[in-house]
Amino acid sequence: QVQLVESGGGLVQAGGSLRLSCAASGHTFTFSGYTMAWFRQAPGKERTFVAAISRSGASAYYADSVEGRFTISRDVAVNTVYLKMNSLASEDTAVYYCAASTLRMAAVRQPADYLYWGVGTQVTVSS
């Protein structure tokens, strides 16, 4: 069974920073074989794409709303994907989810493209 466990969320003031982590594990899960991504879901809204990173870690894609402020990265040695979030604003408040897909990164911006999900971590930005 594959498990994705997010951590690092919390309450931060506008303009501040947070780093989210997602630790992946599972008997049959090969971390380097999956495109990894972060999505977020604000209250009353749909889950939306935030960022994705290729299986090799060489390429990353971002939603326009976070481009230049957020950075996604992965560490194959510890089976973990990170999301560094800078210049946070109130509109970044949401539950952030980690997800894994077997598809190539260019195609994977929709929740339906992802096979495994974490339970989410809350990020609240106070203005």
Distance between the termini: 40 Å
Structural class: mainly beta
Helical segment count: 0
Along the chain, the helix and strand elements come as EEEEEEEEEEE
Percent in helix: under 10%
Count of distinct strands: 11
Radius of gyration: 14 Å
Overall, the morphology is: globular
Multimeric state of these chains?
A: single chain
Sheet with most strands: 7 strands, mixed
Average pLDDT level: 95
Poorly predicted tracts of residues = none
Q: Which percent range describes the beta-strand content?
A: over 45%
Q: What is the strand and helix layout of this fold?
A:
Elements: E1 3-7, E2 10-13, E3 18-25, E4 35-41, E5 48-53, E6 60-62, E7 70-75, E8 80-85, E9 94-101, E10 116-117, E11 121-126
Parallel strand pairs: 2-11
Antiparallel strand pairs: 1-3, 3-8, 4-5, 4-9, 5-6, 7-8, 9-10, 9-11
Quick structural overview:
This protein is 0% helix and 48% strand.
